[in-house]
## 1
Amino acid sequence: MSEGLSAKAIPAGRDRWQSQGLMWVVGALVVWMGMWALRFAYNGFSDAPVASVTGVMVSVAFAIAVWKLRAATIAGALFGGLISLILTFWTILPLGWRQGTGLAPLVALFLLTFVATRSGRRRGVIESEKERRKGRNAAQVLANLSVAALSVSTLGYSLVLRGQACCGAGYYKGWVVPAMGVMCLAALVEATADTVSSEIGQAFGGQPVMVLGWKRVAPGTDGAITLLGTAAGILSGAVVAAVGMWGLRLSLTDAGVALVAGVCGLFFDSVLGATVERRGWLGNDLVNFSSTVFAAGVALGILALVR
């Protein structure tokens, strides 16, 4: 989270290969899980044809809308559609066709970040001409959303099994399903809070301070935050947590854990910005990806303590 605008500290070449590496490695995982989601939709067509077709059509419509609104490039919109597909069908698998879906918090994230971004533009915040015209690229989309999608896939399932070869129905419903949902929701909360805090902080927050040391700095300094931007980010994260509680059929406690973990990820993002990003070691895409991983990990850790 860097609530301001400045030149990147990381050399352009290093930033580019880090983003490309993220896109190829994480993007490949997302494509793999997306293919499994399509297979699930195909296999479930005979039992629930309307739900199967609707899930696919909604994901396609989401990708088209993201592209048409210039919220993402074509590649970014395609990955957004795949992530939508994963969040739709991989959460249907444990919850059932009529019980819930992870699509709801994703839509909430998109609406909140879209409004915040457009508010910043109307305020006159300067951004790159490429992003203004085409939106976020594939690496940026993956950096913010891939962890949420992978948390509810077989990768997340393997993680929360705690090394068990198999589990009974009680363990599955009492731990595995909620843990996957909370990890997913925490990552979405963090991504929402980070984007909204940055956009609102840049447009309306005034002079920022460093998250480490609270020293006033110029707008655009990596790791700088504003009170208004941070408050807006936390509030937007709470909205996504509430929507996710309904969409993923989580308890109030589980949604609270996701919100706390997402906020922890928000500040972790600022700490990374003030340290490794400011020194030019990591680019913004890897910082954002690391922050969503951190949020999901914190959520899993807290959930293990409270359950």
Note: DSSP finds eleven helices and two strands in the chain.
## 2
Amino acid sequence: MIPSIPGYGFSGKPATTGWNPARIARAWTVLMKRLGYTEFVAQGGDWGAIITDVLATQAPAGLLGIHSNMPGVIPPDIDKAAQAGAPTPSGLSADERLAYEHLKFVYAKGVGYGYQMGLRPQTLYGIADSPVGLAAYLLDHDARSLELISRAFDGHAEGLTRDDVLDNITLTWLTNTGISSARLYWEQLQTGAFDFFGVKGVSIPVAVSAFPDELYQTPRSWAERAYPKLIHYNKLDKGGHFAAWEQPKLFVEEVRAGLASLRHAI
């Protein structure tokens, strides 16, 4: 089952405030129970990764474990330094240094749109008024996404096609979810901070797939520290932030392999 986050895609648009990751996570538990599942696992990337991490901290009865391709593993001191644009801290391994540099780039060049949505999401009405405006925003809302999506328009066969990208824009346009999806950033900011990548305190089994073109490729050391019950870690050689979209076969293989040890309990 692949639920659509409230305000996104085929889901309804919340008519009241309060639909933050914690509330959405609780809604997923209710949904699974209504569908008759007494035991289940959860997977997420991007906002789904944050919601899945939060769901894991809630540890509802029946949730056996989670899989993430954008895991919340950044130690607090590292996260703080990256947000401040500080030089790379000493004592980091090669993988940790690379992840830090990528994270620092994300904070400096990649999440400006997130702060805009978090502070004044309704001012983006232009992307609900023009399909060209929406396309421009989705294609170029941050430097990292533009780099990955541009491959499809530069003739690269790997990953997304031009039709994949246009289908995604069309779905957002036809469902009129350009603004309603932005509200989740506002909801997150109401909790006190943009805690996108930090450790959440998950204590149930976790599987991690570290794709190279993710916002940062998660080092094993940080994953082990963030998730004391890490049951799977794999560092892949292709795939990025849109892993489920860009590399569906590889992504499904990872989810199956990552959660395989939990199948006996289902």
Note: The domain at 21-265 is CATH 3.40.50.1820 (Rossmann fold).
## 3
Amino acid sequence: MTYHLLSYEAGGAPRAGIKIGDTVWDAAELTGNSRYVSVIDILNDWEAADSRLAAIASARKAPAGGRPLPSISLLAPVLYPGQVFAAGSNYQDHISEMDASEFKGQNAKKAGGRPWFFGKTSRSAVVGPGSIRPLPAYSHKVDWEVELAVVIGRTAARVPVGEALRHVAGYTVANDLSARDFVARGGVEADSPFRFDWISHKGFDGALPMGPWITPARFIADPQALDLKLWVDGELLQDSNTRQMIFSIAEQIEELSARVTLHPGDVILTGTPSGVGMSRGVFLKPGQQLRLYIEHVGELQHGFAKQER
């Protein structure tokens, strides 16, 4: 049986939890390992922890002490990633739709290039399922981007493609929110390296809703064949599949680990498909509710605070 790894609130503090079916157990209590207080603690011992948890989940008799999922206050599954990397222009259908806007992209693989990444803030940006946060006050063009998020479970340095997925603990759902009206600084030459404003564009408070849990890699047969969808107020706006990725997850890990060591708990956002707001000229508004779904991984819901009158 599948198990999921999550963070939940207990007595005002985060704890690692294990979901099996619709029941959640405290990870330290379930495993008898007092070190498994946080998800990061578990990821730092991933090989042993994953084997132990998979054995518990596959047992015929459910252990005692679990709580119903609806009674649990879920947090973002990783509190907080040490590093967050995000792949840019990594879905062919997204590149095609953006060609009609000012943010033109190209298929870097066909051009003989390499995967391209930017960083997002961690502690300030990451928020969990059910969160209701204000949109950034300075932006009027905040966009949505459903993405498959990869959670690292083994230290990765200079890892070749063929070994890359062995370093993945699991996958979760993420929304790479983007302030489209703050991509570039006004009055700065187009060829200047100081033109782009990545903090305002991608790193604002609440810019990375993530969750609801981590689905371990052992339960995902092919991460390059997953449906992913996003709804805003019930309207389906993104509907694609991870097979549209230009650079695979393994290729992304190879590229990143050649430049920087990846550690347990680090997160890689692997790109977004077509259907973003920029291509439609439509952006998020206060009070709206979002639902994001990735096949075999989970469903994330979050929203934005209404404006005070």
Note: The longest strand covers residues 208-216.
## 4
Amino acid sequence: MEWISRLNEAVEYIEANLDKEISYEKAAQIACCSTFHFQRMFSYIADVPLAEYIRRRRMTLAAFDLQCGSEKIIDIALKYGYDSPTSFNRAFHNVHGVSPTEARTKGAALKAFPRISFKITIKGDAEMNYKILTMEAFRIVGVKEHYNMSVEECFEKVPQFWGRTIQSGTVTEILKLMDKEPYGLLGVSTCMNGQDFDYYIAVATDQETPDGMAEYNVPKCTWAIFECIGAMPTAIQELQKRIITEWLPTSGYEYANAPDIEVYFEGDQQADDYKCEVWLPITKKS
């Protein structure tokens, strides 16, 4: 499966550079997707964040070096990207439970984290309701925050942004602007070109942009639109993981150069029957 082959090629690059600088952008290019999407796919499929996987693999190799070689600890620290013995000691202890010095003693108990190799097993244990829709470009207006961080940090920061926007009453003002499809309160992530992106809480509208708000033009695109039912945010997070690990690999589609969109409708978001939508930008595999 080409999609999985590209992910494994990206892992090949990471493994070959554990003792050098690893570029997330380069790995994403090999996987033929944005940096953000690569980190998210890796995290969902491997069940471990990309940064944590790299840290574990480096500390596994560092433990081998400590036990089998005579290099100085500071040299091993530098080899795996740590500028100071203190930061290296902390990272090593977090993984192995002992210090680098203790790791050199005979009989020291250490951990080894093997290299990942991706193989997709499609569970298919629950249906996913979706439709494919091509939409002309549309304009959104609302509030935005800029992010330049890992996917894991974004999963923490974006809900906080939602919380502040709701508490401030800004959502009410945004909803007054809604006058065209897609109808609903939109969460729009412009994460197509890297780890550096804007996240909008907005609506589709032809009205003027009020002071203090921002606008963005969503390009014409084909979308896979998935129905999500359940309490937020757990239901949508679980659905997004299933889309990446179960639907996308066998769909004949891949990510298109357009934003990710979540569409939230009126209702109690903590209710088990709350409904919203996930819009995945897609293009046919060449």
Note: The beta strands are 130-135, 138-148, 185-189, 196-204, 214-218, 221-229, 253-255, 260-264, 275-284.
